[in-house]
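cron nightly-structures :: item 1 of 1
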Amino acid sequence: MDKENKVLETIEINSRIPKVNITDDGIDFNGIALCDYHSQDCCENVYADWSAMQDYVEQIEGKKFKTLTIKAVDEMGLLLCFDDVKVLIPCHNEQNGYYSGDLELQIERDNIIKKIDVSDFVKDNIC
């Protein structure tokens, strides 16, 4: 899974993560928020499935990490690498092909938002 994946961003953490908050729109911890954004239209759904993070909460909460490296996995989604703990966040494009499949990852820290286009790493389900 981690072979030749493109590094999108590396975030210095250098602290313990006491709590990870997970919503449908993203995750946040230690003043860092990750979320996806897509200008939604009717009849289509383009999103990152942040619920996948739930399976890794026990491996992350209460532990100290140096960095979070965010990688892109072709046609699958995002790989969040908390040092040696790796979490795949699947990204989906469900529609009939008429609408935009654009998806953006937004990283917020210290009231600064960085936007990264992740459209090329979304799994298409066009019917």
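cron nightly-structures :: done
Residues 33 and 108 are 5 Å apart (CA to CA).
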